[in-house]
Amino acid sequence: MLNKSIAYRLSVYISLAVIGVFIAFIGIFFLFNQTLIKESVKSKAMSQSTHVTSQVQRYIITTAEVAGNISDQVIFYGHQDHADLFIQSLVIKYPFINAIYVDIDSTVANLPYWSYFTYRDGDSTVIQRGSGNISSCTNEQAQFKKLIKQNETGWSEPYLCDRNNIVVAAYCSPILVETPSGQKIRVGEVICELSLNELNRQVNSMKIGKGGFAFLMSRDGIYITHPVTEWILNRSIYEVNEKVLKEDVVSTTDNVLADTKPGTLIAYPELFNFEKALVYYVPIRQNGWVLVSVLPYKELFEPLYLPVLQMLFFSVLGILIIYLTVTYIINLQIKPLSLVTKQLKRFSNLTGPYKDIPENEIDQVAESLNYMKSWYEKYLQTQSDEQKKKQQRQEDMNQASEIQQSFIKTIYPAFPGRTDIDLYSTYQPAKGVSGDLFDYFFIDDDHLVLTMGDVSGKGVPAAFFMSVAQTTIKTNALVPKANKIVEKVNKELCTNNQHQFFLTLFLGVLDLKTGILEYCNAAHTPGYVLTKNAKVKELAQSHGLPLGLYPDKSYSSAKIQLNKEDTLVLYTDGVTEMLNENNIQYGNHQLVENIKTLAGQSPKEMIERLEKSFKLYKGHAQQTDDITMLIFNYQV
């Protein structure tokens, strides 16, 4: 080689270098794309798993929320003798709920029934009610007993309901009531069955590559869903053949079931004739289930074969062309170094904003810096624009708060020309805007309307709904009949309630001549009447459901005689549910005791004293709900 000509040696060296570069490039291309394909398949499995996981979590969370809502409200509906309709409506609303079981302790008084059991029977629902335990499935009875013994919320293991041959899992939520001392005790439980048929359909619909599949298993490794339907509830991951994992099955399975984060492993499933496969598993934190996706390993590399062959062909062809070209250039001695430099620059140049790369390296650096400067200036401008948008959103929120505050009555005395009545209020939103409402106005010279309400939800939407409700109340307060006004307001709110807000409302109509207060309480907190001798009467009657849910609901009313110097106290649940630094609620009992000490004071003095009491009780704890109170004194 040393005796060869310089042209020959340069041609050989350059050709060998180019060949080495191509071989290295092909190897890097293969390894890089192999990694990309693995990550792509893994990402696809993650994406599809996330979709199915979100569906599973949606069903799990919704089932738990339904059980919680029932446990919070079933005693209230039971007193109204609407508990069966309330439970049945939820089964109809959520098709993935197979059955709902409610058992209330007989110590809870004034209930027509203490047990309810609603389940699906084909396309219809069946409800049973009574005074003892009710169930229609052997497996249900066993699972329900286990859940009740846990004495807390939680999920059962999946089981087969032999009533309709559906695989289900049950969630238990205790029914709690508050004692006069503020302590909550358990007086029963609500159990909701989640049908796993829909989950099985969702999981089996996943497409993991061409031949992959997915399945769901319980926290004990039992198959909940699987392409082989005979394995569901009849086979465990612990029972797989040792060929499937080629390592300690129990240890590997324990690690998968105990892992709180997604992961991967290599397996050799029976469905793939024990061929190598990539397994990706995702734990579902709500109940410990695991979603598993399986993909044949050979599918990972099929997309690489044809591109690698094509690259080899064009690489060999390219090497041959480069060799002939370099040899020709060297032999002709036409500036071979310059030509090679240009070829290398074209070959190694990164795509960027410039099409023509200058030969001078200093110019290249200068143009690169100019480009970075231009990019940084654009970045700063983008940040400035985002800050302006943020400030604009904050200004909009402040304006919304100011608009809502303009609806709130703050000028007192409310009726300076009258000496027969006196009233005062406090309004403390937890955030910028509030869903609480209160109002007072005259229908005529002798009839005064007093309202106190609370809209479900928080923030701007609840505030808008509050404003609509307040306007609707005034519009429909045409006759001095509390229940008739409430019925009209309910119909109008149902008509325009697309977001399913609802309003709890206390509405009273006071005849100033007689002192008779007719009131209608639509699931709102009870009002109190404080007499001049410090006696407190609770207006405990409830006359119907919250407004905005059922347009055809009728409402009743009650009457109470107000005597001279009697005081009416109205408030929202933000008062009694206010938490102190120990996370303990203020409670109705403490509110009543404080009201008793304020007998003989004016409404304004009472409000100021109560506000001080709230502040002392709350301490440094955050206000979590809106606080609204209205105190009215009858002085005739």
Automatic annotation (TrEMBL):
InterPro entries (alphabetical): Bact_Sigma-Reg (IPR052016), PPM-type-like_dom_sf (IPR036457), PPM-type_phosphatase-like_dom (IPR001932)
The keyword Repeat is assigned to this record: no
Domain spans labelled PPM-type phosphatase: 418-634
Keywords in alphabetical order: Hydrolase, Membrane, Transmembrane, Transmembrane helix
Molecular function terms, GO-annotated: phosphatase activity
Pfam families recorded: SpoIIE (PF07228)
Entry's transmembrane regions: 12-32, 304-330
Gene3D superfamilies: PAS domain, PPM-type phosphatase domain
Name this protein carries in UniProt: Sigma-B regulation protein RsbU (Phosphoserine phosphatase)
